[in-house]
Design goal:
The complex is a heterodimer of chains A (about 350) and B (about 270). With about 350 residues, chain A is mainly α. In chain A, about 70% of the residues lie in helices and about 0% in strands. In chain A, strand 2 and strand 3 form a beta hairpin. The longest helix of chain A is centred in the middle third of the chain and has 27 residues. The N terminus of chain A is likely disordered. Chain B has one domain: Rossmann fold (3-Layer(aba) Sandwich), CATH 3.40.50. A six-stranded mixed beta sheet of chain B has the order 6-7-8-3-9-10, sandwiched between helices. Chain B has a four-stranded antiparallel beta sheet with strand order 2-1-4-5, sandwiched between helices. In chain B, helix 5 runs parallel beside helix 8. Chain B starts with a helix and ends with a helix. Classes of the chains: A mainly alpha (about 350), B alpha/beta (about 270). Chains A and B meet through helix 8, helix 9 and helix 10 of A and helix 4, helix 5 and helix 6 of B.
């Protein structure tokens, strides 16, 4: 399908796919086989943590695709992530069935609490897994399509576009905070029990989710690589560097932007859907503008415009976050800010750029 | 488009009375590739173009000169669809109404433009710059699946040879010299196989040799296609142009060969006088 399928994989492709494959094989083995007190044992806590990092990496990949390659600085990708997460959360809520606090077989607890008598129309079908998966892809996708259609057709670019993406996620944050929205308000959706009949607390389910996340990230990486290596990908890079010039070559710049933005939003939605069953909750704070900005920082630190850089940045920064928030919780935001400033000033191409300079020497 | 549609708009000016100096071409219907009639563009009350009439013949190499603010760039903006005029008519290839087309549609119809400041895609190799410019289906899904055929590859290599960048095929365009970027731009224009090329200040900032080489290139391009060059450098204009149009305050001040234009009293007054 893509022109680049014939091009040979680069060393970084092998590194990315290799490490994901290694995680998918080694982590389950080390979690299941060695005794819990063995040095080699990987705890279930670590499994879930890794799964979370990989979801973040997928989100970073989606941001890098639009920002690093097309120059669209989206400060609202957290919204697509959260929408994917909510779509999955709705399914997980319905899976609880009558095991909720109020024991209502049809309505999730928060609806019973609000004295709702029936399921709102937008919850219809949410008990079906395939339909929920369709929503995971369709809701972020359609929002991005409509948003992008208006924004890119009106040639909103640069900082103005960043501001309206930020406004979009903020508006959704406020909307989802309202109890009337029917998504659990402030508390969001939580207390999940099962996914497709498998216990979410069981080690096996957690391992399966990690493996699935690694597979999704690997596939997303391969597809993104193929897109970037196709002529479409070159047009997108050209748009980043000289948008007017591309228009004068006869390309519909708005169409190119809308489609890459939509595809990227779908990836972010999938990341959110994989994230929610692993962390066990989705609430409106995922729409917080700060979250979206953080993703941009991961990408900047890892290396904007390099797909594996985005993955590397997301994993490393979040690993550091886990470490530092354990040691010095107050200091983390300062460290993150300082990292961002330093990287922007001295390593505009991020960690990946440093490595490339090293190779060139 | 049927014959009636292509005759109707063009026939009118042929019978319309000509007010000032006689236009060189009475044979509008057959000779012109580009036909601008009474184009007016105002920005906040300032008339960048004031009832501009301009006709370019098929296969012609035309130079357009004029001081800053004479309306040269605005004229190009109108032809390429970047600016919409307040009044007037712009026809291309006899029956295509440029004012009803979007920018990409105009490119597709066969008008290519080279900008004043060379804007090539610096992060992409020279070869890819030409590939992107190539005449092809430029839709999203077509580009996602696009593959270069051997024939297309040969065409790109041919163009690389024409513009003298064959040795720079895989170099990132950002690493080229200023003159080379200008040629790459001309090459990108060629890849679009335009019938009409609009070239804005090709010799600006070039060394003497580069300027000469550019002049040769432009002369070699005319004939198969029409070329309109906007330029300040009089030496350069003299070296390439058979016909020169002088713009002043959004209108045509004089038109003719270089000597006629330079001896035109209006031109002398505007350029040297007062």
């Amino acid at each position: 399908m893509f022109a680049s399928v014939t091009t040979r994989p680069s060393p970084s492709d092998i590194a990315v796919i290799g490490s994901l494959g290694l995680i998918a094989v080694l982590v389950p083995v080390l979690n299941l086989l060695p005794a819990p007190d063995s040095l080699l044992h990987v705890s279930t806590f670590t499994v879930t943590l890794l799964g979370k990092y990989l979801c973040y990496a997928l989100l970073a990949l989606s941001v890098d695709l639009v920002w690093g390659f097309c120059g669209i600085l989206s400060l609202g990708h957290g919204a697509f992530f959260a929408l994917g997460g909510y779509a999955m959360g709705m399914y997980l809520m319905r899976q609880i069935g009558d095991r909720g606090v109020y024991g209502n077989a049809l309505l999730p607890d928060f609806m019973v609490f609000l004295n709702w008598q029936e399921l709102p129309w937008y919850w219809w079908g949410s008990s079906s897994f395939p339909f929920a998966m369709l929503l995971v892809v369709a809701v972020p996708g359609v929002l991005a399509l409509v948003f992008g259609w208006f924004a890119f057709r009106s040639r909103v670019t640069g900082v103005y576009l960043s501001i309206i993406t930020q406004a979009m996620t903020y508006a959704l944050l406020l909307a989802f905070f309202r109890n009337d929205m029917g998504f659990g308000g402030n508390n969001g959706l939580t207390d999940f029990k099962e996914i497709l009949g498998f216990d979410l607390q069981a080690d096996g389910t957690r391992l399966a989710l990690l493996v699935l996340t690694a597979a999704a990230l690997g596939m997303a990486y391969v597809v993104c690589r193929a897109i970037c290596a196709s002529r479409y990908g070159r047009v997108v890079v050209a748009i980043r560097d000289a948008e007017d010039r591309v228009r004068f070559l006869g390309y519909r710049v708005d169409h190119f932007k809308v489609w890459i933005f939509t595809f990227s939003a779908v990836l972010a939605g999938i990341a959110g859907a994989l994230y929610v069953p692993q962390v066990g909750i989705i609430n409106p704070s995922e729409f917080s503008p700060l979250n979206s900005i953080e993703v941009v920082v991961w990408v900047a630190i890892g290396g904007r415009g390099s797909l594996y850089g985005a993955i590397l940045g997301a994993v490393l920064v979040n690993f550091a976050k886990t470490q530092f928030t354990g040691l010095l919780p107050e200091a983390w935001l300062f460290i993150l800010g300082a990292l961002f400033v330093l990287v922007t000033l001295y390593f505009p191409r991020g960690i990946v750029g440093v490595r490339q300079v090293g190779v060139a020497r | 488009m049927n014959d009636a549609a292509m005759m109707a708009p063009v026939a009118e000016p042929a019978v319309a009375p000509m007010d000032d100096e006689p236009r060189a071409q009475p044979d509008l219907l057959h000779g012109s590739i580009l036909y601008l009639d009474g184009i007016t563009v105002s920005f906040d009350g300032f008339r960048a173009l004031n009832q501009l009439d301009l006709y370019i013949e098929r296969g012609e190499l035309r130079c357009i000169i004029g001081a800053n603010g004479a309306g040269k760039s605005t004229m190009m903006d109108v032809v390429t669809g970047k600016t919409r005029p307040d009044q007037g008519q712009a026809l291309f290839d006899r029956n295509i109404d440029l004012l009803s087309l979007t920018e990409p549609e105009i490119v597709k119809a066969g008008i290519g433009r080279k900008f004043q400041k060379p804007t090539v895609f610096e992060q992409l190799p020279v070869f890819v710059n030409l590939e992107l410019a190539m005449k092809a289906d430029k839709g999203v899904f077509a580009t996602l699946r696009a593959r270069l055929s051997g024939e297309q590859r040969d065409r790109i290599d041919e163009t690389l040879a024409t513009i003298g960048l064959a040795d720079f095929r895989d170099v990132h365009a950002g690493a080229l010299s200023h003159g080379q970027k200008q040629w790459l731009e001309i090459g990108m224009l060629l890849m679009q196989e335009p019938q009409l090329m609009l070239i804005d200040e090709p010799a600006a900032g070039m060394t003497h040799q580069e300027t000469e080489r550019t002049a040769e290139l432009l002369v070699s391009l005319a004939g198969h296609r029409s070329v309109v060059v906007v330029e300040h450098d009089m030496e350069f204009v003299r070296s390439i142009a058979r016909r020169v149009t002088v713009l002043h305050e959004g209108r045509v001040l004089a038109e003719g060969d270089m000597d006629t234009v330079q001896n035109n009293p209006n031109v002398i007054e505007v350029y040297l006088g007062s």
